[in-house]
Design a protein that fits this description.
Layout (H helix, E strand, L loop, with lengths): L2 H10 L15 H6 L18 H10 L5 H18 L1
Length: 85
């Protein structure tokens, strides 16, 4: 069965048809032991001014990722290059 066929079947299911028996119940005891996990490189939201033509360039050249990811990648590569030289 293809991925598309499996997705079609899942999307057509109603909630009552889903088998949850292999998933442990989440109860208060479980919640007491949960730890918040954050990515060590988690981004913070900041506001910076970017010239419109630069922002448009990033928006037009971002392909698989968002333009924000592209901007971060460019900055990280630039800094890494500066550190190595």
């Amino acid at each position: 069965m293809s991925k598309e066929e499996r997705q079609k079947i899942l999307f057509e299911m109603c909630d009552e048809e889903i088998d949850f028996t292999d998933i442990p119940e989440i109860n208060q005891d479980f919640l007491k032991t949960v730890k918040k996990i954050e990515h060590p490189q988690k981004s913070k939201t900041n506001t910076i001014k970017i010239k419109p033509h630069l922002l448009n360039w990033f928006k037009n050249h971002a392909q698989e990722n968002s333009y924000e990811v592209l901007i971060n990648n460019v900055l990280e590569n630039y800094i890494q290059h500066q550190i190595e030289n």
